[in-house]
Amino acid sequence: MASEIPxxxxxxxxxxxxxxxxxxxxxxxxxxxGESNMGQPGQLDEAGSHALLNRFSERxxxxxDTANVYGRGRSERIIGSWLASQQRDRFVIATKxxxxxxxxxxxxxxxxxxxxxxxxxxxxxxxxTDYIDLLQTHVWDDATPLEETLMTMNDLxxxxxxxxxxxxxxxxxxxxxxxELNKQMGFNACISLQxxxxxxxxxxxxxxxxxxxxxxxxxxxxxPLKGGFLTGKVRRGQKPQEGRLAWSADDDTLELQSxxxxxxxxxxxxxxxxxxAEKIAKAKGKSVAQVSLRWLxxxxxxxxxxxxxxxxxxxxxxxxxxxxxxxxxxxMRQLDEASQPEIPYPYELIxxxxxxxxxxxxxxxxV
Length: 367
Fold this sequence. Notes:
alpha/beta, 367 residues, NADP-dependent oxidoreductase domain-containing protein, globular, NADP_OxRdtase_dom
């Protein structure tokens, strides 16, 4: 029962970007719900998915993220069957659009008006709801004029079928273009950016997250544990032998950002970051995953962290990062330094020459 869970073990509620929407600081990602498009191991059936959703809700979670392409609609259908038995207005449901749902149909992909409109109608049916809280573009679309995409998203908000809009997987200049064009055309603002972010994936700090900070766009990190690497399951130089890490690491032809290959994982910088997290976790009596997630939660640009789980103990362990404790400034500094990637030009030059020119009245600054 929900009453058996102490308040300090429940999620904190935060604002999503500069919007008035309140979400739990842990978001449940549902890529693992239903049969996978890619044949990934450990996928959950409907009963297992519903059990995770129930536990997530008991622990104060109200923010659930999916996408139409997850299992070609299976994830949305599983959420919809669960949502039908819940009080709908207590949950924030986010989904995404871009990828093809029918490869035989040339208009079943992208961010054009037809595909977005069709996708939203189908998502609403699968989710068994009459509105989507947050509709996100899944990735930038070079083929479609941005004006067409944003006008379509705005029309959906005006119709009541969508409440808020966000983006995912974009560069800094692309996000800034989205923000400025929305302002110019009087459209609803982009309130969130779903982007890969973790102790071993910090590239977006250099540019994209600066645009988020400047415009009040809340960051929703995905793959915060890099496919399980930041749980401490593997050791330096030892290729993983079980679970999703082994599945992806064994196939160096995979091109999934969410499923790192061994070549992508086995880097000195990654091991240094992992070992720093392990040291702090041991000193604080926390898991490596909890420290890795807490580092993200204490970043100023982050609103909510998207976690995935296939087992109840994984969900509980991850959600224990949400409340009741913090990392000290010194611990944050240690993790920042241990995981710092090489900063390319011109970012390194600009940062180095401005390191002592921090003006609190200036909205820019480093993450």
